[in-house]
Write a structure and sequence with these properties.
By secondary structure, the protein is of the alpha+beta class. Helices cover 22% and strands 46% of the residues. A seven-stranded antiparallel beta sheet has the order 1-7-6-5-4-3-2. The longest helix is centred in the last third of the chain and has 19 residues. The radius of gyration is 15 Å and the shape is globular.
C-alpha cells in the first residue's frame, strides 16, 4: 500500500511547444549544451531520434551526484506536443523504484501562454522510498534552461 504514485508539475514557458517537442524528440543531445551543469550527455543506444521504441542513455548530475538513466520512447503525440518515456535502467530504478515513467507535454494556459507539464508515474520498491520531488525539481530547472535558450534564439 502506498507504493504506486503519480506526481505532476507545471512550468510556465515563453517559447512555443513545438520547440520543446522538437528538442526532446529529435535533438535531446543538445540539452547538454543548453543546461551543461545539469545534463552531461544524451546518447542514442538503440533506434533513431524521434522514433517510438528508441532507447536513450542520459548522463546528468542531480543533488551533486552524477547519475545515468536509460529511457525508451513509448509514445509520441505531435498534436499535444507529448512524449512518454519509460525508464528501463539506471539510477532511478534499483534501490528506489520498481518502475518509473516520465511524460512531457505542453498545453495552452490562457492569454497565449503555455505550460510545460511533467508527469511521473512510478512504483516505489517500498513505502520508505520518498516521492521523487527532487527529480521533479531538477527537470523543472532543466525546463527553465531550455525555455531561456529557446526564447533567446
Amino acid at each position: 500500500m502506498g507504493r504506486i504514485g503519480k506526481l505532476i508539475m507545471y512550468q510556465d514557458i515563453s517559447s512555443c511547444g513545438d520547440m520543446f517537442h522538437d528538442l526532446l524528440r529529435y535533438r535531446p543531445h543538445d540539452i547538454a549544451s543548453i543546461s551543461p551543469d545539469k545534463v552531461h550527455g544524451c546518447d542514442i543506444v538503440d533506434g533513431q531520434p524521434g522514433v517510438v521504441g528508441s532507447v536513450f542513455c542520459w548522463n546528468y548530475t542531480i543533488d551533486g551526484k552524477k547519475q545515468t538513466t536509460k529511457t525508451k520512447i513509448e509514445e509520441i503525440d505531435e498534436t499535444n506536443h507529448k512524449m512518454v518515456f519509460n525508464t528501463i535502467e539506471g539510477d532511478l530504478l534499483g534501490d528506489l523504484y520498481k518502475s518509473f515513467k516520465i511524460m512531457f507535454h505542453v498545453e495552452p494556459h490562457g492569454d497565449g501562454r503555455q505550460l510545460a507539464t511533467w508527469t511521473f508515474e512510478f512504483e516505489k520498491l517500498n513505502t520508505s522510498v520518498p516521492y521523487p520531488t527532487n527529480f521533479m525539481d531538477y527537470l523543472l530547472a532543466v525546463t527553465r534552461d531550455m525555455d531561456a535558450h529557446n526564447t533567446n534564439q
